[in-house]
C-alpha cells in the first residue's frame, strides 16, 4: 500500500517537472481571423462595397450577398460589423455626408476674402459632384424613398449645423466689408449652389442630346463653373453678371448667336 502511494507521488512529481508527461495537454489558442484582427478595416471595406452597390442598383435592387462578396466577407461578418440591409444603407448615407462635410472643412473658408470663399465653395461643390457620381446616386435614391431612412439618423443634422454657420459667417463678413449687399440665408444660398451643379450633372445625358453638346467636355465644364460663379456673386453683390469674367467658350457661343 505504501509502495503504491509512493509511485503515485512520483508520477505527479514527474508531471510537474515535465508537463509533456501529463495525461492532458492545454489546447493552443485559436488564431484570430483576419477580420477579427482588423475589424475597422473590414467595416470600411463593407461600407465601400455597399456604397457602390446601393449607388448602382438602388435600395430595392441592392443585394447583401453581392456586397459581402465584393468586400471579401460573408453575410455573418456583414451583420456583425454593420447590421441588416437597412442599417447598412443608413450607414452608407451617413458616411457619404460625413465625407463631403469633412472635405468642405479643409477649404478654410473663414480665412478667405468673402467673394473668394464663395467662389471656392462653388468650385468645390461642382468638382466634388463630378468626382463622386455615387454621392448623387445615393441622394436620388433617398429622395425616392422620401428620406425615410435619413430621418432616423442621429448624425446628419448635427454635422450640417457647423456647415451652415460657416456659410453664414462668410456672408456676414462680406456684408460687413461691403463686398456683399445681401445677407442671404445660408441654407438658401447653399441649396442654390448645390442645385446649379446637381441638375446639370445629374441630367447631362439627356441635356447633351437635347442641346447637341457634350456638356461634360472640359470646355463645357469650365464654362458652366464660370457661369455659376458669376450668377451667385452677382446675387450677393448686387452687380451685373456681365461684370464677372466669363471664359472664352462663352464668348464664342455669344458671338455665334449674334452672327446667326
Give unreliable regions as ranges: 1-16, 250-260
Strand content: under 5%
Q: Roughly what percent helix?
A: over 70%
- The best one-word shape is globular
Amino- and carboxy-terminal Cα gap = 124 Å
Query: From N to C, what is the helix and strand string?
Result: HHHHHHHHHHHHH
The CATH homology group name of the largest domain: Tetracycline Repressor, domain 2
Mean pLDDT over the residues: 85
Number of helices: 13
By CATH, the topology of the largest domain is Tetracycline Repressor, domain 2
Describe this structure in words.
The protein has 13 helices and no strands. The protein folds into two domains: 36-83, Homeodomain-like (Arc Repressor Mutant, subunit A), CATH 1.10.10.60; 93-250, Tetracycline Repressor, domain 2, CATH 1.10.357. Residues 1-16 and 250-260 have low confidence and may be disordered. By secondary structure, it is mostly helical.
Amino acid at each position: 500500500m505504501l509502495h503504491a502511494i509512493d509511485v503515485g507521488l512520483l508520477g505527479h512529481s514527474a508531471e510537474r517537472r515535465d508537463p509533456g508527461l501529463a495525461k492532458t495537454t492545454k489546447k493552443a489558442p485559436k488564431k484570430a481571423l483576419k477580420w477579427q484582427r482588423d475589424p475597422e478595416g473590414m467595416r470600411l471595406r463593407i461600407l465601400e462595397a455597399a456604397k457602390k452597390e446601393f449607388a448602382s442598383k438602388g435600395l430595392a435592387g441592392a443585394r447583401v450577398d453581392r456586397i459581402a462578396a465584393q468586400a471579401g466577407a460573408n453575410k455573418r461578418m456583414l451583420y456583425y460589423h454593420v447590421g441588416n440591409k437597412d442599417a447598412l444603407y443608413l450607414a452608407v448615407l451617413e458616411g457619404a455626408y460625413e465625407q463631403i462635410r469633412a472635405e468642405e472643412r479643409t477649404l478654410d473658408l473663414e480665412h478667405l476674402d468673402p467673394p473668394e470663399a464663395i467662389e471656392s465653395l462653388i468650385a468645390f461643390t461642382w468638382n466634388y459632384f463630378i468626382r463622386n457620381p455615387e454621392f448623387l446616386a445615393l441622394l436620388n435614391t433617398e429622395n425616392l424613398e422620401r428620406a425615410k431612412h435619413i430621418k432616423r439618423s442621429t448624425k446628419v443634422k448635427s454635422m450640417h449645423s457647423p456647415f451652415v454657420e460657416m456659410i453664414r459667417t462668410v456672408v456676414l463678413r462680406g456684408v460687413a466689408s461691403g463686398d456683399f449687399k445681401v445677407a442671404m440665408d445660408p441654407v438658401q444660398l447653399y441649396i442654390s449652389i448645390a442645385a446649379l451643379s446637381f441638375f446639370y450633372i445629374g441630367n447631362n445625358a439627356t441635356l447633351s442630346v437635347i442641346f447637341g453638346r457634350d456638356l461634360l467636355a472640359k470646355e463645357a465644364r469650365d464654362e458652366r463653373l464660370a457661369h455659376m460663379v458669376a450668377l451667385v456673386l452677382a446675387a450677393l453683390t448686387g452687380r451685373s453678371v456681365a461684370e464677372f469674367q466669363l471664359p472664352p467658350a462663352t464668348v464664342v457661343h455669344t458671338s455665334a448667336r449674334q452672327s446667326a
